[in-house]
Structures are given as structure tokens and as C-alpha cells.
Specification:
By secondary structure, the chain is mostly beta strands. 0% of the residues lie in helices and 47% in strands.
Length: 76
């Protein structure tokens, strides 16, 4: 996910980021990444959520989620 706010941008509502993991029959890992770049005089709220859905008979394998969120903020 990449969010870039141009100079003097003000978003009045939050950005809602939802990462969903669905277990399968085999073990696996995910590495979701979020990069937020806010230029001078910008304003935003970002809500980031990570959920794993319950699997059925075929979705019982272990999973690993290793998220990284990076934020680059400018002045004001």
C-alpha cells in the first residue's frame, strides 16, 4: 500500500487499510508493506488493520504475518 499526500493536502476522513490473511492447507508467510509519504502542510489519519480469517478443513495450516509500515513526514 502506498499513500502519498501532496503539499497542503488535508483529508477529512481516515484512510482505512485492511490486510486479510486466509489460511490454506500449507504453511505460508505474508509480508505486507505500507509506505506513507506526507509532504509539507499535509494532514491525514491512516488506520491499518491485519486480520486472519478462520479456515475450514483445508485452511488449518499455520501462517506468519510480518508487516512493515514506513512513514516519511515533512514539516507541519
Amino acid at each position: 500500500m502506498f499513500v502519498r499526500l501532496a503539499r497542503d493536502t488535508c483529508l477529512p476522513v481516515p484512510i482505512d487499510v485492511l490486510y486479510v490473511t486466509v489460511p490454506g492447507a500449507e504453511p505460508f508467510a505474508t509480508a505486507p508493506r505500507t509506505l506513507i509519504v506526507a509532504e509539507p502542510e499535509s494532514r491525514v489519519t491512516v488506520v491499518e488493520r491485519h486480520v486472519a480469517l478462520a479456515g475450514g478443513a483445508a485452511g488449518t495450516a499455520p501462517t506468519l504475518s510480518s508487516p512493515v509500515t514506513e512513514v516519511s513526514l515533512a514539516r507541519n
